[in-house]
Design a protein that fits this description.
By secondary structure, the protein is α+β, with helices and mostly antiparallel strands. Helices cover 24% and strands 27% of the residues. The protein is built from two helices and six strands, in the order βββαβαββ. The chain has a six-stranded mixed β-sheet with strand order 1-2-3-6-4-5, with helices on one face. The mean pLDDT is 97.
C-alpha cells in the first residue's frame, strides 16, 4: 500500500517519478532525490555547493511536511556529490537542518547529476 506525496512548494519531478511515497503499512516515507532547484524559478539556486545544499534541504523540508513529518523523523539520508571535495561545505549546511539525533547517512561521489547540479539528497523518514 502506498500514498503519493506531492507539494507545489518543492520542484516538480523532472521525470516519471513522485516527490515522495508513504508506504502505509510501515509508515515509512521515501523521498525522491532533490537537487537545488528553486521551485519558483525552475533553476538551480546558485552555482556553489552551499547555496545548492540550502535549496535541496529546503525542498526536502517541504516534501517531508507534505508527508506529515519533518527532519526529526528522518532515519536515513543519502547524499550524492558531483565532487567529493564539497563534502565539508555540504556538511556545514546539513548541520543547520539536523541539530541532534542525526540520521544514518551515506555520502558518495557521482559522475553527474540532472541539470549539472552539484549535489542531490534523498531521505527515508518514519511517521
Amino acid at each position: 500500500m502506498k500514498k503519493i506525496v506531492h507539494t507545489e512548494k518543492a520542484p516538480q519531478a523532472l521525470g516519471p517519478y513522485n516527490q515522495a511515497i508513504i508506504e502505509t503499512r510501515s509508515g515509512l516515507v521515501f523521498t525522491s532525490g532533490q537537487i537545488g532547484i528553486d521551485p519558483k524559478t525552475g533553476e538551480l539556486a546558485g552555482s556553489d555547493p552551499v547555496a545548492q545544499a540550502h535549496q535541496v534541504l529546503n525542498n526536502l523540508k517541504e516534501v517531508l511536511a507534505a508527508a506529515g513529518c519533518s527532519f526529526e523523523n528522518v532515519i536515513k539520508s543519502t547524499i550524492y556529490l558531483k565532487n567529493i571535495s564539497d563534502f565539508a561545505a555540504v556538511n556545514s549546511v546539513y548541520v543547520e537542518y539536523f541539530i541532534r539525533d542525526f540520521p544514518v547517512r551515506s555520502t558518495v561521489e557521482v559522475a553527474g547529476l540532472p541539470k549539472d547540479a552539484l549535489l542531490e539528497i534523498e531521505m527515508i523518514a518514519a511517521l
